[in-house]
Amino acid sequence: MDLNSQQKKTVIASFLGWTLDAFDFFLLTFLLTDIAAEFHTEVPAVTKAIFLTLATRFIGAFLFGMLADKYGRKPILMLNIVSYSVIGALAAFSPNLGIFLALRALFGIAMGGEWGLGSSLAMESIPPSARGMVSGILQCGYPAGYLLAAVVYGLLYGQKVGEFTFGWRAMFLLSFVPALIVLFIRSHVPESPAFVEARQHVKPGLLETLQKHWGIALYAVVLMMFFNFFSHGTQDLYPTFLKKQHGFDPHTVSWITIVANLGAIAGGLGFGALSERIGRVNAITLACLIALPALPLWAYSTTPFMLAVGAFVMQVAVQGAWGVIPVHLNELSPGAVRATLPGFIYQAGNLAASYGGPYQAGIAEAPGSSYGYALALFAGVVAVCIIIVIRFSPEKRGQVMTVLDREVSAIPGKV
């Protein structure tokens, strides 16, 4: 992967922005039972925070994306990171469940902007031949954030420093940390060359572009709905599954989750790079096929070791498929709205899948059911759905990216 110094810094900044965004999000998944206990409610009621975060992300993708298409990727990315850091930390001061849910909804708006901004900045700044690997690197920010949350939870949660105890409120205060990335971006990351080139030209707006490309946009939203069911359906309730169904302590939950996210990082990097050789569609298909035989080991094992093995393989599959998504959506998107459309499509799919967490929790806690059953049901059905839907996707591997829609295919015969 031949990148110059500025391109490497751009990729690092985009990766870190998504990593710490995911860190803020996944902290909640480790703390559901504790928040429920403090607010005297049940876990399904607290999982509405996950629903609200996912449901409002499309608003942030639209708002921050529109600003970035007008004012530039770099300054709006900095604004976005500061926003999700501050709002994430404010959850620590919630006096009741209602305020907590409202703050997580606002966090979702801020979180929703980062993916589209970071991916468009990176993809427009690197050569086409590096996009598959960089796509995998960027998407690995998500499991890296989950892994970081697992490490922090395992090391800090419940620990005492004098009279102070690291409870769930203290964990949310760590959301201030991502704001430090802004200093790095401001000093070291250049603006997207494609955006700079197009600054003096009139570009079509989002609505005009959607009217022209409504078919691919609608298809991509459906695809991303299934993708978000795939990731959140295998991740968000897994710590709760380990605690409630198996009774594991925080240390055990932490290390199993760490192993799972090591698998996710391996999958994202591996399948992102593989997509440069076999194509985006084929790489996603192969990754989803791996998830199916992993289901029994992942959801129905009884020992920590075997659950960790199953979680590793499952997340290789899940994030392997996801590792192709940043480059695939950016290649499918018209250049004039590339900061808006991929992120908006991604988060609109999130909106469509946003009630998955509460729905899974409801299935899991129904009489005669279990979290293992709810997790396996979601993962199996959705993997098959993605395999079917992705086969209808256009393949635009290697397409040259500009902001003025002068794109031409870099690979003969690709459409």
Automatic annotation (TrEMBL):
It is a multi-pass membrane protein. It is found in: Membrane. It holds the Pfam family MFS_1. GO terms for cellular component: plasma membrane. The keyword Membrane applies. Its main location: membrane. Residues 10-397 form the Major facilitator superfamily (MFS) profile domain. Gene3D superfamilies: MFS general substrate transporter like domains. GO terms for molecular function: carboxylic acid transmembrane transporter activity. It comes from the Bacteria. Keywords: Membrane, Transmembrane, Transmembrane helix. The chain crosses the membrane at residues 12-33, 45-64, 76-93, 134-156, 168-185, 216-233, 253-274, 281-299, 305-327, 371-392. This is MFS transporter. It comes from Mesorhizobium hawassense. The lineage of its organism: Bacteria, Pseudomonadati, Pseudomonadota, Alphaproteobacteria, Hyphomicrobiales.
